[in-house]
Amino acid sequence: MPGNEPFTITRVIAAHLRHWEVVELVTPSLPPIVLLDGLLRADLVALDSALDEAVEAVKAAKLDERLAAETMREACAPLRAGMLRFNRWVRSEFDGKSWMRTLSLVPKPQASLDRFIGPIRATLCLWLMIERDAPGAVFQQQFGAPVYGREHMEAEFEAFETAWDALVDADVDLRLARAERDVIEERIVTVLTAYGHAVKARVGIDSRLARSLPPLWPGARRKRRGGS
After folding, report:
1. Which of 47, 65, 105, 218 has its CA 20 to 30 Å from the CA of residue 56?
2. In whole angstroms, what is the distance from residue 181 CA to residue 177 CA?
3. What is the model's pTM?
4. Which residues make Cβ contacts (< 8 Å) with residue 37, sequence separation at least 6?
């Protein structure tokens, strides 16, 4: 229920619950209102609570996804630095050799995450080839920095892949949480629509109770509870 009105599904449900209570109070000679497949007012209260829980689940999943994305970005930084060092080493040690022509471009910091995988794998493969074909070559260390080599980049890449998997899982969890919330919201709207028809059938369309039925969406568009 996307929208930008100040009204939320919470207020819509609350208004219908109050109206439902009044209708049953002023028509005591009639049985309780039963909707759809035997749904009573208490069931709408339960759906309201279920929606609250679903909204909280979406919030938690959004936080998990954001943290996973931050971890993913943090895993990219050392790989970029390692690729830069490797490329400089190859250019300085193997000028004129074919290895220079196969260097991968270092992804920009703001590049999409999927653009890191190919260049990093290619860099590791090239590094392994150089070690095999030029066993006497020594990777140039940086003054004042910790010792670095191919095994360090492999470890960084493993951390990158782990962070990538965690981000994918977090994204799926968020989409599932949103889908579950949407299913509950749609069920609630169906119930509220049926309630309006039930009230009109119970007291007549010209009655004050029928005319005072709360609207399903008070504004031009509805705003979902708890954001997107």
Report:
1. 218
2. 6
3. 0.78
4. none
